[in-house]
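Take the subject:
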Amino acid sequence: MKKYEKKRNQKIFEVLLILKSIYLLMALVALTSTVDINKIDNPITVAVSAIGVLLFMITYFMLVVYYHKHFVDRCNRIAKVIEIIILLFIFTTIVMFTGGNESPYKFICIFIVLISTIQFGEKHSIITALILSLELILIDFMMSPNKETLSIYFERDLVLIASLLVTAFILSMYVNIEVEYSKDLKRLANVDELTGLFNHRYLQQQLTKVIKDSEEKKENASLLFMDIDYFKNYNDINGHQHGDWVLKKIGIILKESVRENDIVARYGGEEFVAILPNTDKNTAIEIGEKIRKTIEDTYFYAQENQPDENMTISVGVSCYPENGKSKHELINAADDALYRAKFFNKNRVEAYYSVLDEVDDSLYINEKIKKSLKAFISMINKKDKYTYGHTERVVIYSKWFAEFLGLSEEEKIDIKLAAYLHDIGKVELPEELLNKRTKLTDDEFSKIKEHPVVSAELIESMKPFERLTPVVKYHHERYDGRGYPDKLEGEKIPYLSRIITIADSFDAMTSHRPYNFRKSRDEAIEELRNNAGTQFDPALVEKFISMLEKYSDKI
């Protein structure tokens, strides 16, 4: 749309430049017509005058072009008004020098009306036409020697005045139509037709602008990513027409819940985004919570058929520059936070955080290593969204479990990092294998079983993480010795590995996976107990279940 507006403005400028050129040329012709060659005593004076007029015209055009190039996007109305005043002054001078009420060049005032109408629109064009009309009438009354002369020139000027007013009115109507049409095109290009919110394209443009402004002003900016919970279920039961009605209603709620300068857009499907300029993370969380609570408290048709008997929304929050310094980093961070909110019971607001950022103060990780690890995780995310979300949730379960067990601060750091890195080796696996929906073949399962070793090899070369190598390598060992890769058993398996094994398995059972159906929380707990002493450390299983009870409000 910006490209269209730029092209349109350029065409309008070209039209105005032609009109101004013709006007000044007519003014120059009018001035030269007053010169009687036979009465010229000093040709040098005439030449100097002609050069002066020519220089004035060149200077004027240079100023017009410079103004258009540097200030057209700022809509400097004052400069345009001054320009109209100059054109009016030139007209008055020409009329007075070419006979006043008898001047044959009064008609050039129509160019001023044309220029004023195109630059300003209806209101200013009518005012300009009225000023010119009043000026013509005053000249007739002041410079006519008698009533007969006044009558002749006044009648002629009435025709000219009528032409000015009609031209101003008709042309301003056309300009208004063109402006409204342009606004409609802009609205259609920027607004989602169904919800009335801004669309994805406009969101991308504004996010780039907000980040640039925030960088220049050294301010925060935040992003809310929102997704309607179980919306597919609602559409399947009630039909897409009712689904569209829900989208419209939520669009209205979003517009009413944000502040005046915030930008709300439909990202696609049932996803929405809000850009919050000059907003820190805490304030963004408050706004997200306000939106979540408002939607939860609003009644939607047939919401009782939803899994939670309510229509709810999950919200992910990211903040510039803390969570990303580019548009894509900020969007990915908010999307990751939303993904975490969706998998932790939905109907909640989650702010983005990275385990690597969280432990920065406790463990030296240089930027190169941090970027490398984030790049690996990002690659996994692109290949397999489940693996990435699974990693985030295993980190959270392991963190809670470490706190519940009363581990040392060093062990708490190690368990979070190991949980974060435990599946990093999956980056070597093909995308079609990670996302396969049917049962894996023996050969495919053998490739999957290689990922703990690959994960260990990747982090072993990074000095800050080398002590985590055995924890990561053995997180798929079984307590009865039938796991992989080295068939360790019992307490020969590192303690932190045994913790991650339980967290890993619990999340795998309670999440949607390409090749498995999701179990309920109670079903997963029963599965843990059934496999205590075979797959899992029996003592840790019961403590993990107790931990789940403690954090039940967060799951």
Remarks:
- Residues 71-75 have pLDDT under 50 and may be disordered.
- The chain has three domains: 2-190, 192-353, 356-555.
